[in-house]
TrEMBL record:
<dbReference type="InterPro" id="IPR050147">
    <property type="entry name" value="Ser/Thr_Dehydratase"/>
</dbReference>
<dbReference type="GO" id="GO:0030170">
    <property type="term" value="F:pyridoxal phosphate binding"/>
</dbReference>
<dbReference type="InterPro" id="IPR036052">
    <property type="entry name" value="TrpB-like_PALP_sf"/>
</dbReference>
<dbReference type="Pfam" id="PF00291">
    <property type="entry name" value="PALP"/>
</dbReference>
<keyword id="KW-0028">Amino-acid biosynthesis</keyword>
<comment type="pathway">
    <text>Amino-acid biosynthesis; L-threonine biosynthesis; L-threonine from L-aspartate: step 5/5.</text>
</comment>
<dbReference type="GO" id="GO:0009097">
    <property type="term" value="P:isoleucine biosynthetic process"/>
</dbReference>
<dbReference type="GO" id="GO:0009088">
    <property type="term" value="P:threonine biosynthetic process"/>
</dbReference>
<dbReference type="GO" id="GO:0003941">
    <property type="term" value="F:L-serine ammonia-lyase activity"/>
</dbReference>
<dbReference type="InterPro" id="IPR000634">
    <property type="entry name" value="Ser/Thr_deHydtase_PyrdxlP-BS"/>
</dbReference>
<dbReference type="GO" id="GO:0006567">
    <property type="term" value="P:L-threonine catabolic process"/>
</dbReference>
<keyword id="KW-0663">Pyridoxal phosphate</keyword>
<dbReference type="InterPro" id="IPR004450">
    <property type="entry name" value="Thr_synthase-like"/>
</dbReference>
<feature type="modified residue" description="N6-(pyridoxal phosphate)lysine">
    <location>
        <position position="107"/>
    </location>
</feature>
<dbReference type="GO" id="GO:0006565">
    <property type="term" value="P:L-serine catabolic process"/>
</dbReference>
<dbReference type="GO" id="GO:0004794">
    <property type="term" value="F:threonine deaminase activity"/>
</dbReference>
<dbReference type="GO" id="GO:0004795">
    <property type="term" value="F:threonine synthase activity"/>
</dbReference>
Length: 415
């Protein structure tokens, strides 16, 4: 059935148009709604090649195409955390490691769909505001599709790895004197012009790609009890929830997970309002956090995320920068998983909630680790390290043996 666009606030429905993003009646964001023509048995999706990327689930996506722009995104590892289960006190704990995507973050799932659409509607150029990952992903997928990419980035606030990716893929970078929210307003203005196709998450077609994360979880472990997602512009948690709701609506599953959104304390417009019992976010002009990916004061998808959490019976929580860095360290040093700070926020949130008795002791919990640690190499300086300096081979061997035999414990945080 032909997809429609539906307002998340007033429910008004519209015929699809690739550049209709907000409801002409009430100004809220739209979502894509459709009924698949065909519903293959779920086992069929697993049989398909991983190199099809999100298009493995093509019957459950609203865009029909013979030529998707794909790099095999998705099909990311679901990793059981046996050591952290004991440390945190959760029965079954998994990380869905989105750092394993082609450009190192979950954005690739959405970008594959959005760039395919941009090409199909004849756009020559794409535009995105970004704290870094959207930029890297947009630049890579647009390069593959032969589209010119314009990126609006908050100056000095994008992690090195992400900036390097955007440069490597040949994007045109506009550094904005101001934060992400200003960059996003600029991207929205540019998107009004015919030349540009926007790739941020106010574009509901992009989120259709991101819902496949939910499909993969269902494929691997069924419906988990809880899913924890770091929240910035609030698109991803909304997309994952939409994926699970569709699985239920289309008869694949009979239950739903609780969605839990985690924000950094210094950039927590949604979590702080939710915890204060309000019904709308407390936007801020000066978000600040070590987790630069989620340094966002006015999340554009706040209503979609709010509904995901309240309808599912989950919660929003905020975590401090030191809680985020501790989670980053635990993931890396206990489980071998390198997360960028924002990616570790989900784990920081579940650690905090577990310590407050949030879980009943027999649940399956999934934390989405949204971006790879290599994205933000600078964040390594927050962790203690042992560096031995040696002036000769004998000296090096002696220093190594001292440590191995416990004669020297030289562990310092660098930076
Ligand atoms: C690594 C990382 N984690 C989490 C988020 C938050 O995702 P969303 O903006 O969809 O809430 C972002 C971007 O905002 C990100 O880049
Ligand atoms: N973390 C994001 C912020 C932009 O969010 P988007 O989902 O609206 O593109 C980024 O990587 O830029």
């Amino acid at each position: 059935m032909r997809p429609r666009l539906r307002c998340v606030n007033c429910g008004a429905e519209y015929d699809p148009s690739p550049k209709l993003f907000t409801c002409p009646k009430c100004g809220h964001l739209l979502e894509v709604v459709f009924t698949p023509d065909e519903l293959p048995p779920f086992t069929e999706f697993r049989r398909r090649s991983r190199m099809m990327g999100i298009w493995r689930f093509k019957e459950l996506l609203p865009l029909k195409t013979e030529r998707p722009v794909t790099m095999g995104e998705g099909s990311t590892p679901l990793i059981r955390l046996e050591k952290l289960e004991k440390i945190i006190g959760v029965r079954r704990l998994y990380v869905k490691f989105e750092g394993a995507n082609p450009t190192g973050s979950f954005k690739d799932r959405g970008m594959s769909l959005a760039i395919t659409l941009a090409r199909e509607v004849g756009s020559k150029a794409v535009v995105a505001a970004s704290t870094g990952n959207t930029a890297a992903s947009a630049a890579a997928y647009a390069a593959r599709a032969g589209l010119k990419t314009f990126l609006l980035l908050p100056r000095g606030k994008v992690a090195l790895g992400k900036l390097a990716q955007s440069i490597m893929h040949g994007a045109i970078i506009v550094e904005i004197e101001g934060n992400f929210d200003l960059a996003l307003d600029t991207a929205k203005e540019l998107a009004k012009r015919d030349e540009f196709y926007p790739l941020n998450s106010f574009n509901p077609w992009r989120l259709e790609g991101q819902k496949t994360l939910g499909f993969e979880l269902f494929e691997d472990i069924g419906v988990p009890d809880h899913i924890f997602v770091p929240v910035g512009n609030a698109g991803n948690i909304s997309a994952i929830w939409k994926g699970f709701k569709e699985l239920k609506r289309w008869g694949y599953s009979d239950s739903l997970p609780k969605m839990n959104g985690i924000q950094a304390e210094g950039a927590s417009p949604i979590a702080s309002a939710f915890k204060a019992g309000l019904r709308a976010p407390l936007f801020t002009d000066s978000p600040e956090t070590v987790a630069t990916a989620i340094r966002i004061g006015k999340p554009v998808n706040w209503l979609k995320a709010w509904k995901a959490v309240t309808e599912s019976g989950g919660t929003f929580e905020s975590v401090t920068d030191s809680e985020i860095l501790r989670a980053q360290r635990l993931l890396a040093r206990e489980e071998g998983i390198a997360a960028e700070p924002a990616g570790a926020a989900s784990v920081a949130g579940l650690i905090k909630l577990a310590s407050q008795g949030y879980f009943n002791g027999d649940e399956t919990v999934v934390a989405v680790v949204t971006g790879h640690g290599l994205k933000d190499p600078d964040s390594a300086r927050f962790h203690p390290t042992m560096r031995l300096r040696a002036i000769s081979m004998d000296d090096a061997i002696e220093k190594v043996m001292e440590v191995l035999e416990g004669r020297s414990v030289e562990e310092k945080a660098v930076g």
